[in-house]
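2024-03-11 09:14:02 INFO worker-7 job=invfold-0412 stage=load source=structure_tokens
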């Protein structure tokens, strides 16, 4: 098998995986209302944001209603 073809395929798989993760991250941010919280509160750390939004509790209790 041609190593160049294998390398291109591996690169494409990695890029597609990264794109999928980005979409999932955006979906979760929207579903958990994190973007509105950032808009309202301004720049804060991820730790501060999770405490304000109680994110882990929301994920556990609602299962995101998926």
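2024-03-11 09:14:09 INFO worker-7 stage=emit residues=66
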């Amino acid at each position: 098998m041609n190593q160049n073809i294998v390398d291109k395929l591996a690169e494409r798989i990695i890029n597609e995986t990264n794109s999928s993760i980005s979409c999932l991250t955006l979906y979760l941010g929207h579903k958990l209302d994190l973007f509105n919280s950032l808009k309202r509160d301004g720049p804060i750390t991820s730790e501060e944001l999770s405490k304000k939004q109680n994110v882990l509790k929301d994920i556990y209790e609602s299962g995101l209603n998926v």
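2024-03-11 09:14:09 INFO worker-7 stage=report msg="The CA atoms of residues 29 and 35 lie 6 Å apart."
2024-03-11 09:14:10 INFO worker-7 job finished
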